[in-house]
Amino acid sequence: MKNIGLFYSFNSIKTKQQAQKIIKGLGNGNIEEVNVEDIGNEEFMKFTNYILAVPTWFDGELPNYWDEFLPSIEEESLKGKTFALYGGGDQKGYPENFVDGIGIMADFIEKRGGKVVGFTSIEGYEFESSKALRGNQFVGLALDIENQAALTDERILNWTKMIAKEFN
Amino acid sequence: MNPDIKEIYKIKTTDKETLLKWYQLLRLGRSLDDRAPNYLKQAIGWSYHAPAAGHDAIQLAIGQVFDRNKDHLFPYYRDLQTSVSAGLTAEEIIYNGISKDTDVAGGGRHMSNHFAKPEWNIHNVSSCTGNHTLHAVGIARAIKYYKSKGVAISSQGESSVSEGYVYEAINGASKEMLPVVFVFQDNGYGISVPKKDQQANRKVAKNFEGLKNIRILYCNGKDVFDSMNAMTEAVKWAEENQKPVIVHANCVRIHSHSNSDRHELYRDKAELNYVREYDPIAKFRRLLIRYNRATEDELNQIDEHVKEVVKKAHKAGMAAPDPSPDSVHDFVYAPAYQPQKFPDGTHNETSEPKKIIEALNSTLKAEFRRNPDTFIYGQDMANKDKGGIFNVSKGMQQEFGHQRVFNAPIAEDFIMGTANGMSRFNKNIRVVVEGAEFADYFWPAMEQFVETTHEYWRTKGQYSPNVTVRLASGGYIGGGLYHSQTIEGALTTFPGVRVVYPSYADDAAGLLRTSMRSQGMTLFLEPKALYNSPKAATPIPEDFEVPFGKARIRRNGSDLTMITYGNTTHMCMDVAEKLSKEGIAECEVVDLRSLVPLDKETILESVKKTSRVLVVHEDKVFGGFGGEVSAYISEHAFKFLDAPVMRVGAEFTPVGFNRILEAAILPNTEKIENAAREILTF
C-alpha cells in the first residue's frame, strides 16, 4: 500500500494541477491520488499520512464533498495519523475568510486526534482574517491563484520539502 | 462544525422520523416554490414571488425552532419554506399566493408571498424590507416586561440590513437586552446588487460585533444540520439570557430575486451552475442516502406524497373564494372607544380652569392608573424631575416606574416601530409615544407610521396597533423651520390612523382618554403654543371623554361658518367676537377636534345655516387639510352656499425663524378677519 493519500476533487481543474505539482515536489511514488467526491470511510481510513486539498467556498465554507464526507469520521479515529492541508483562497476578493477551509479542516482533524503538519508563514499575504491562522502561521499551505499565481510553484515546492520530513 | 454551537443535530444521530419529517417539509416548500411562477404564467395570481430555493435549510430551521405557543415569528417575503416549516399548510400557502379570501395572512389584501398567520404569532409584515425588525424588538420588550416565555424571531435578507431602522432595532435590542433572534439570510444579492455594494464587510453581521449584550452566530444556511444547530442555540440562548442573537446564515439564491428580475443579466453561467450544485435539499438528500438514514424508495415515496398534497392544495386554491369588492372598507379602523359619560364630548363643568399641559398630564396619569398595561416612551421623556421638554409627562416615571415610563434613543422610527411591535403582545396593551420631541422631527418615523396605518386592514382585522402618537405641533413660538411644523396635511392622507387636534384643555383631556381607550392608532397633535395659554384653559370634568369624529361648536352664529382646529380656533374666536361687536356678522366657530374621522354632519348643518364658509388652519393652504374640507363642502353643500368657500392658512413656504418672517408666513387674526370680511361681501 502506498503511504500517503492525496485527497482532492478530480473535478476541480485548479486543485488537480496543484496536486500534480505536490506529487512532483515530493518526488516519490509513494502517493495515491483519491477523488474525494467518491470516497467512503474505509478508503479514507486506510492511510497513515494524508494530504488533503481543501479549497474555501463562499464566505468561508468547506466544499460540499468534504462537508458530506466528514460526518463519517468517528471521534478519536484519527489518532496516529498525520495530515498536511492545502487549499486555494482569494485574499483580495474574500479577505475576511481567506483559506478558512484549511482552518475548518484542521480543527476537525485535531478534534478527532489527528496531527496536522505543514504550517506556513503568513508573510507575503494580505488578508483580514482567516480560520486557518495559528499564531503567525497558516495551518497548511495557502494558495491564491487569483492574485499570486506566480508564487504558487515556489510555495508548493517549499511546502513539499517541509511535509516530506513530517510523514512517517 | 461551528465551535460556538453545540452540535445537537447530526446526520448520524438525529432520529429517522425527524429526518424524514424535515425532508418532507423541504420537498413541500420547494414544490410550492417551484410551482408559484405557473400561477403567474396562467394569469391566476402570485404576481409577486421571491423564490426561497437555496435558503431552504436555514428556513427549515427557523420554522422548526419556532414554537407558536410562546414565540413570535416575523418572516420576510422570501420565507415560504420558513412558513411551511412553521406549520402553514400547502393550501394556506396557495391561498396567500393567489390572494384568496381564505388567505390566513389577511384575505388577499397584502402582496402575494407575504405569508403569515397572526393567530399563531406568525406576523403579517410589510413589504418594506427589514422593517419588522422593529416590531420584533417591540414585542420582545413586552415578552421581557411580562416575564413571558419565548422569543421574537425576525428574518430578513442580508441586503435589507442596510436599512437604518434595522440598525435602530438591533441597537435597541442590545440596549434593552431583549430576547430577539435576528436572522440574516445571506444570498449575496439585494435584487441584482451584490453585497459588496451594500456594506464593507462581506458578512454584514460583523457590523454588529461592537455592540454589547448581543451574540452573533454564523452558520451555513445551505446545510440543514448547521442551520438547525445554530437556530436551536440562538433561541435557547436568547431566552435563557434575555439578550439578542444574530444568526448570519450563508445561503445561495438559485433563481432570480423575484419574477420581475432576470438574474442571467448579471450572473455568469459558472455562478448559476454552482449555486444549483449547492442546492440545500439535494445535499440533504445525498446525506440521507449516504449515511443510510433513508432509502431511495422512502424518499421517492415522500416526493410522490408531496406531489399529491400540492395537487390537492392547488384544487382547493382554485376553488377558494376571492375577496369581495364590497369588503374594501372593512377593517380600515379598529373599533374606537365609545364615550359613556360624555357621549357628544361636551360638558357643563364650572370648576377651576386647567391649562392644556395640566389636562394632558392628569389624563395620562389617570389612564395609567386605570390600565396597568399602559406604557409611554419617547425622547427626553423622563429624567428625575424633568418630565419631557414641555413637562407633559412630569411625575409619571416616579409614579409608574421606569418600565412603563422611559426614554427612547433619538431614533423616531425606533419609537414608532417598537410601539407597533409591543402592542402585538396582547390586546390590553396601550402604548403612548411621543413620536418625536417636536412634530417637525417625526419625518424619520414616517416609514413606520405608514406601516402601522396598514396593519388592521392588511390583516383583515386580525391585528390592531393600539398606539397613541403624541406630537407637539405648530408654531407661534419663534421656532423656525424645525420647531414650527404642523404636519396634519400630510398625515391625514393615510387611511388607518385617526387624527385629532384639540384647541382647548377639556378637549385635549377627552380626546386623549378616548385615544388611549380605543383600539387602533391615533395621531394626537398638540398645539404646543397653547400648552400654558390661559386662553386654552377650561374646566375639565373628571373622566371627561370626547368621541372621535365629533366637532364642537365653540360659538354659535348665523352669517358665516369658520371651520378650524388647533391654534387658529382661538384666532377665529377673537375675530368672531370682533365682528359681532362691530355689528358686522355673527360667526359660527366649528372646532373640528377630529380631522379623521371628520364630522361632516356638523359641517353641513352649519353651512346650511350660514351659507358662507371660511376654513382656517395653521398649516399651509396649498395641500393643507382645509382643501379636503373645502372640497367636501363644494361637492355636498354647493346649493346652500352664497359665497365661495375660502381658506386661510400658512404661506406655501417653510416657517422662518425671524419673528417678522414667522408673522408674515403663519395665519393671524388680521388675515382671518380680512378673509371673513371678503366672504361677507358676497
UniProtKB/TrEMBL annotation, chain A:
Electron transport is among the record's keywords: yes
**Cofactor (UniProt):** FMN
Coiled-coil features, chain-numbered ranges: none
Which keywords accompany this UniProt record?
A: Electron transport, Flavoprotein, FMN, Transport
Q: Which residues form the signal peptide?
A: none
SUPFAM superfamilies on file: Flavoproteins
**Domain Flavodoxin-like: residue ranges:** 4-164
List GO molecular-function terms, semicolon-separated.
Answer: electron transfer activity; FMN binding
Q: Which domain of life is it from?
A: Bacteria
Q: Which InterPro entries match?
A: Flavodoxin, Flavodoxin/NO_synth, Flavodoxin_lc, Flavoprotein-like_sf
Reported function: Low-potential electron donor to a number of redox enzymes.
Return the NCBIfam families for the record. flav_long (TIGR01752), PRK09267.1-5 (NF006739)
- Give the protein family: Belongs to the flavodoxin family.
| Name under which the protein is recorded | Flavodoxin
UniProtKB/TrEMBL annotation, chain B:
List its EC numbers.
Answer: 1.2.4.4
| GO biological process per UniProt | branched-chain amino acid catabolic process; response to nutrient
Q: Where is the Transketolase-like pyrimidine-binding domain?
A: 354-533
**The keyword Cell division is assigned to this record:** no
UniProt keyword terms in alphabetical order? Oxidoreductase, Thiamine pyrophosphate
Molecular function (GO) terms listed? branched-chain 2-oxo acid dehydrogenase activity
Entry-linked Pfam families: E1_dh, Transket_pyr, Transketolase_C
Q: What is this protein called?
A: 3-methyl-2-oxobutanoate dehydrogenase (2-methylpropanoyl-transferring)
In which organism is this protein found? Plebeiibacterium marinum
